[in-house]
Specification:
- With 522 residues, this protein is of the alpha+beta class.
- It contains ten helices and 27 strands.
- The chain has an eight-stranded parallel β-sheet. Strands 1, 2, 3, 6, 9, 12 and 13 form a seven-stranded antiparallel β-sheet that branches.
- Helix 6 packs parallel to helix 7 and helix 9 packs parallel to helix 10.
- The protein is globular.
């Protein structure tokens, strides 16, 4: 097989993979000006699960384990790193879309060019001296027999190499990236009020946000009502009694004050106690293993995610009636209630499973095609002029559909820890920033500015706020702006004024190594 020398690495094409095993296929390899383009086509007919290549790599000091969606993490790992107790979606042996291999001299990128048709998966194995990488296109038994084109190239600097890959993905996308002309700024209810929202406390925070904006004379655009206003996942046109007037009058007040009103939705999730599921159980994706609805999440103990449902299923967007229902929900929110900013959350649930597990109403589609159908339905319903932000979303399949994408886990209230901590946020934003303002606007999550109800020092708060501003993307907070100290108000105002200028082409350096620690707060 072919051996390629790049940036101090030796990459040997060891095996052609068909359905995960060595198989017969045609390999195309074209090299132009240091850019290698490789693709695999398997002969014959019949459904295939995947096609790909196995590389043996020598000379890499570390590799980028690149996660697929907002929350599954991206970090540098040493060749030969073994899986420990991580859930499958966060194992160092598993990656998606691309990887970067580093030497003392260069960074070598290996990744798929397109992401709108199929998912690309990487498996890392071998030893520190003899690393192996399996990179496969998951064809999902669609009838396709050709994998996505793989790009292989080197650059002296990691940032430049990763930025180059993002630019290649943008150029290959059938839809041009949606890049907002200015940074997303504003307020979100989640990280202060969480699900305990009412019309009264939302209006209180809204009035404080308006006073802050006007007194500081800053751009503060979005006012987002996050999760907590609907009684069950799926019953998106119902509103909890804590909002006695419904959402339309409240959103009208927000817009009249000069804000862009926003609402939260998890369009793929359907609670087992929702009216939607009771009336339409056939709208849930079926599980080929159990014969029942495919379970996305469950809460069997006393914690019920502030709703009654014990189980959450996946809406089958390929079912025409389900698609019509969701389109009507988003159309109502946009054109009747008046929302113009939409946060679509838990989006990865539409792409977790292939046809070996998920039985959709319409067969023959890849998991990526199903997922993009959902987002296209949403986009058509809200219109091209509304803003759509993805959270818990597949990063690379979002090009051309989302205006902004969360690039990290939730900010959390601690500095260190494996999940929902500042450490994990810094790690992931540092390894995903290359896509900002190339594929979509990056969302590094809200900044915490309050003086209590967290475990962050003053230095941590300021550092994290400035880091979020340095990313150049969305800049939002959830705190009551009337309760902040003058110093914290001044900090936010300063960052917002900076946000009115062009986004920087740099990112502050926070190299926290591989997986985050479980240590105590610093």
């Amino acid at each position: 097989m072919t051996t390629i020398a790049l940036g101090g690495l030796t990459l040997s094409l060891d095996t052609i993979l068909v359905d995960g095993m060595p198989g017969d296929a045609t390999l195309s390899h074209i090299e132009t000006d240091g850019m290698h383009r490789l693709s695999v086509t398997a002969p014959g007919a019949g459904p295939l699960s995947s096609v790909g290549l196995r590389f043996v790599v020598a000379g890499a000091s570390r590799y980028l384990r690149n996660g697929y969606h907002s929350w599954d993490g991206s970090w540098w790992a040493a060749p030969g790193t073994r899986d420990a107790d991580e859930p499958e979606g966060k194992q160092p042996s598993l990656g998606f879309a691309m990887t970067a291999l580093q030497t003392d001299a260069a960074t070598v990128v290996l990744g798929a060019e397109r992401h709108d048709r199929f998912q690309t998966r990487l498996r890392f194995g071998g030893t520190a001296a003899r690393m192996t990488i399996d990179i496969e296109t998951l064809l999902d038994a669609t009838g396709a027999r050709s994998g996505e084109t793989l790009l292989l190239f080197a650059d002296a600097k990691a940032d430049d190499a990763l930025r180059r890959w993002s630019s290649a993905v943008a150029a290959a996308s059938p839809l041009p990236p949606r890049l907002p002309t200015r940074r997303i700024t504003g307020w979100c209810s989640w990280y202060n009020l969480y699900a305990a929202i009412t019309e009264e406390n939302i209006r209180d925070h809204f009035q404080a946000a308006r006073r802050f904006r006007d007194e500081q004379a800053v751009l503060f655009d979005i006012f987002l009502i996050d999760d907590g206003f609907t009684p069950e996942m799926g019953d998106w046109l119902d509103v909890k009694p804590q909002f006695p007037r419904g959402m339309k009058p409240l959103l009208g007040e927000i817009e009249a004050a000069g804000f862009t009103p926003g609402l939260w939705i998890a369009p793929f999730l359907v609670g087992n106690r929702s009216k939607l599921y009771r009336a339409n159980p056939d709208w849930a994706v079926q599980d080929r293993k159990t014969g029942g609805p495919l379970l996305a999440m469950h809460f069997y103990g006393e914690f019920r995610w502030h709703k009654r449902s014990e189980e959450y299923y996946i809406l089958d967007i390929t079912h025409p009636a389900a698609a019509t229902y969701l389109a009507n929900v988003l159309h109502t929110w946009r054109h009747d209630w008046g929302a113009r900013y939409f946060k679509a959350d838990f989006m990865y649930h539409g792409m977790e499973h292939g046809p070996d597990r998920a039985q959709w109403h319409q067969p023959g589609l890849s998991r990526v095609e199903v997922w993009r159908r959902m987002v296209r339905i949403m986009r058509r319903a809200i219109g091209e002029d509304a803003m759509l932000a993805g959270c818990g979303a597949p990063l690379w399949a979002s090009v051309g559909l989302f205006d902004a994408v969360r690039i990290s886990r939730d900010v959390g209230v601690t500095m260190t820890g494996a999940d929902q901590s500042a450490e994990s946020l810094l790690r992931d934003s540092g390894t995903r920033w290359h896509a900002h303002d190339v594929l979509w606007q990056a969302d590094p999550d809200c900044i915490l500015l309050r003086d209590r109800f967290h475990h962050l020092s003053d230095a941590h708060v300021e550092t994290l706020a400035r880091h979020a501003a340095g990313v150049g993307g969305a800049l939002m907070t959830s705190d009551h702006l009337g309760e902040l100290s003058p110093a914290r108000q001044a900090l936010l105002a300063s960052l917002l004024r900076d946000a009115e200028r062009p986004a920087p082409r740099w990112l502050p350096r926070f190299d926290v190594g591989s997986a985050p620690s479980e240590g105590a707060d610093e």
